[in-house]
Specification:
The chain is mainly α and 213 residues long. It has eleven helices and three strands, in the order ααααααααβααββα. Strand 2 and strand 3 form a beta hairpin.
């Protein structure tokens, strides 16, 4: 299910980029925010940033100059874009706990993501993919905060969807989540070798004794 939603999101972004870039009169606020939400679901790709660059500059900045957060007087689209950008900042900084906290902090977020089916599940899968590429072990409590899942729901997601394991005998409260070795998270030593021929040194030494013309 999540894979088909992921592909659908990429397809919509690819289709709507040129349409709204070259036909701005067709732009609709709801469609714009839906595209941005879809772009969030394919992080860490640059789709969200690319979408932002298609929007007019006045939409990207709050009317209120006293804060970087959207103000009550901002236009609806401007406020929505700024709020979605706040989510993107959390994701780009790997602040997944902050992402969920921000998502739950305002009812407007629920309205913005409502049209994207399975948004939270898609985000959990994407977060899990990134974690699986960079970690071999993660404390359960930490990963629970990153995925905003607890108890049986967390265990079901980790074992059934991710295919990872839970070791309750080590680590902090709740144990640790173990991630199988893959080509991204495998620790490998890298040895860089450069082949330099003696003739190359000979030319350097010869030039040092050459008289300038």
């Amino acid at each position: 299910m999540w894979f088909h939603s992921f592909v659908e999101g990429v397809a919509k972004i690819a289709f709507l980029h040129p349409r709204y870039q070259f036909n701005p009169h067709l732009t609709r606020d709801e469609t714009t925010t839906n595209i941005l939400v879809k772009a969030l679901t394919v992080f860490p790709s640059p789709d969200f940033s690319l979408c932002l660059h298609l929007l007019p500059p006045h939409i990207l900045h709050p009317i209120s100059k006293s804060t970087s957060l959207p103000a009550a007087g901002d236009a609806p689209l401007s406020e929505a874009v700024q709020k979605l950008n706040a989510l993107n900042v959390h994701l780009s900084q790997a602040d997944y706990k902050g992402f969920w906290n921000t998502l739950d902090s305002d009812d407007l977020y629920a309205d913005l993501v409502a049209d994207v089916s399975g948004f939270e599940e898609l985000m959990r899968v994407r977060i899990a993919v990134i974690v699986g590429q960079s970690c071999r072990e993660v404390e359960r409590a930490v990963l629970e905060s990153w995925l905003q899942l607890h108890g049986p729901d967390f265990e079901r997601f980790i074992t059934d969807i991710c295919g990872w394991g839970i070791d309750n005998t080590v680590g902090g409260p709740g144990g640790i989540v173990t991630i199988p070795v893959n080509k991204e998270n495998e620790a490998k030593g890298t040895v860089a070798r450069e082949s330099v021929n003696f003739d190359q040194f000979a030319r350097v030494i010869r030039r040092a004794y050459e008289q300038p013309a």
